[in-house]
């Protein structure tokens, strides 16, 4: 929720004698997306956390199953024959896939899937966002939020989620706009280690039977059989599940239609992207980063990304390579900031244009604010500013 209280008075000028400022503009704002929205957050609001006991148990079970597969593949199958190049290669591949699967699971679970600010469907917020009287606005009756197109309410997360596909208990989170990439990678890497584990188990069984269980492993034959059978069952089950889920997710991205939209057979009120643009909307421009759980998708930059971007913008402005704002740039291409975490307020004061131009830029956290001379005479506005949020500009007049 963004709460802005503006207390306006007037400046009084008499002749050349400028009285002191008697207009006070007091901004008390809560950023639209993340700064103080601590619902469903933990560790001081740094991480997104869903406090659902079923989801927590499923997430822990997922980790335990990965650890079990790691133990059997390494200790029962590969380590006894570590001297061979074949075993070393399989070990490197399995460790890499397991690490990426674990990292993808954590990123999916602790990333805000695209939650709509809770309780922002107020009259003041609607006015600030530029909605007109009579304009149709969808409001969620459960979380009292302005419901964007393609957003759906999750009864587990108790939030409206942008482009919500489904709620997955295995990651204890919704799959939405900001974490769909991580979920796709999670299913991809789990499918990879499941298929590799299944292949290695069948190969180990065949070798042990051929050698009549002599020198095929460091464990006893009964223990080896039990461990391999359980891993075979686990690998087969999760290979089928994740391959199907991976195909479903890729089809949804390919068709630019979420799982919920497919089930409800909703009439598309949005302009469908081309298939390639749909992939880029989730994974970004094609590169090796598509397969990395450590790079953020286009719509989910981290706070560190925001601070770095602000620093670069400020540095370029100081050395004179860019200007803070070009009033002729209607699309804000010069400094269009990513992911909606930035705000800029341009305040109109009693000074002349030259005095306003001389006042320095200032920073507030990750927000870059600068009083540009071209905005001093903004019509009907004692305060003019806009929020960078998904290429939309909200004016505060």
TrEMBL record:
<dbReference type="Pfam" id="PF01529">
    <property type="entry name" value="DHHC"/>
</dbReference>
<feature type="transmembrane region" description="Helical">
    <location>
        <begin position="307"/>
        <end position="325"/>
    </location>
</feature>
<protein>
    <recommendedName>
        <fullName>Palmitoyltransferase</fullName>
        <ecNumber>2.3.1.225</ecNumber>
    </recommendedName>
</protein>
<feature type="transmembrane region" description="Helical">
    <location>
        <begin position="182"/>
        <end position="205"/>
    </location>
</feature>
<feature type="domain" description="Palmitoyltransferase DHHC">
    <location>
        <begin position="140"/>
        <end position="265"/>
    </location>
</feature>
<dbReference type="InterPro" id="IPR001594">
    <property type="entry name" value="Palmitoyltrfase_DHHC"/>
</dbReference>
<dbReference type="GO" id="GO:0019706">
    <property type="term" value="F:protein-cysteine S-palmitoyltransferase activity"/>
</dbReference>
<keyword id="KW-0012">Acyltransferase</keyword>
<keyword id="KW-0808">Transferase</keyword>
<keyword id="KW-1133">Transmembrane helix</keyword>
<dbReference type="InterPro" id="IPR039859">
    <property type="entry name" value="PFA4/ZDH16/20/ERF2-like"/>
</dbReference>
<keyword id="KW-0472">Membrane</keyword>
<dbReference type="GO" id="GO:0016020">
    <property type="term" value="C:membrane"/>
</dbReference>
<feature type="transmembrane region" description="Helical">
    <location>
        <begin position="225"/>
        <end position="246"/>
    </location>
</feature>
<comment type="similarity">
    <text>Belongs to the DHHC palmitoyltransferase family.</text>
</comment>
<feature type="transmembrane region" description="Helical">
    <location>
        <begin position="56"/>
        <end position="79"/>
    </location>
</feature>
<keyword id="KW-0812">Transmembrane</keyword>
<feature type="transmembrane region" description="Helical">
    <location>
        <begin position="85"/>
        <end position="103"/>
    </location>
</feature>
């Amino acid at each position: 929720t963004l709460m802005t209280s503006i207390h306006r008075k007037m400046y009084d000028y008499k002749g050349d004698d400028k009285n002191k400022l008697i207009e006070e503009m007091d901004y008390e704002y809560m950023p639209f997306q993340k700064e103080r929205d601590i619902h469903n957050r933990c560790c001081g609001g740094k991480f997104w956390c869903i406090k659902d006991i079923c989801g927590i148990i499923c997430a822990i079970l997922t980790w335990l199953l990965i650890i079990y597969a790691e133990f059997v593949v390494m200790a029962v199958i590969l380590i006894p024959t570590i001297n061979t190049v074949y075993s070393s290669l399989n070990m490197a591949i399995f460790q890499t896939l397991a690490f990426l699967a674990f990292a993808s699971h954590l990123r999916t679970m602790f990333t805000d899937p695209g939650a709509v600010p809770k309780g922002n469907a107020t009259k003041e917020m609607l006015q600030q966002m530029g909605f007109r009287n009579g304009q149709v606005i969808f409001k969620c009756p459960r979380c009292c939020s302005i419901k964007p197109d393609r957003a759906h309410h999750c009864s587990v997360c108790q939030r409206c989620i942008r482009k919500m596909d489904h709620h997955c208990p295995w990651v204890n989170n919704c799959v939405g706009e900001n974490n769909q990439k991580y979920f796709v990678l999670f299913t991809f890497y789990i499918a990879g280690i499941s298929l590799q584990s299944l292949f290695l188990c069948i190969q180990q069984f065949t070798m042990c039977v051929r050698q009549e269980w002599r020198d095929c492993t460091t464990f006893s034959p009964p223990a080896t059989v039990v461990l391999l059978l359980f891993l075979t069952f686990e690998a087969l089950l999760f290979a089928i599940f994740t391959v199907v889920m991976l195909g479903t997710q890729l089809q949804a991205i390919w068709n630019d239609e979420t799982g919920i939209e497919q089930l409800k057979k909703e009439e598309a009120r949005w302009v469908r992207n081309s298939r390639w643009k749909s992939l880029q909307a989730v994974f970004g421009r094609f590169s090796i980063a598509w397969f990395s759980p450590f790079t953020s998708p286009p719509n989910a930059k981290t706070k560190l990304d925001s601070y770095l971007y602000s620093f670069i913008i400020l540095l370029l402005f100081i050395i004179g390579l860019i200007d803070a704002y070009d009033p002729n740039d209607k699309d804000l291409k010069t400094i269009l900031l990513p992911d909606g975490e930035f705000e800029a307020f341009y305040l109109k004061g009693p000074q002349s244009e030259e005095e306003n131009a001389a006042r320095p830029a200032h920073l507030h956290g990750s927000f870059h604010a600068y009083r540009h001379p071209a905005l001093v005479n903004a019509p009907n506005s004692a305060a003019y500013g806009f929020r960078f949020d998904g290429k939309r500009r909200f004016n505060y007049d």
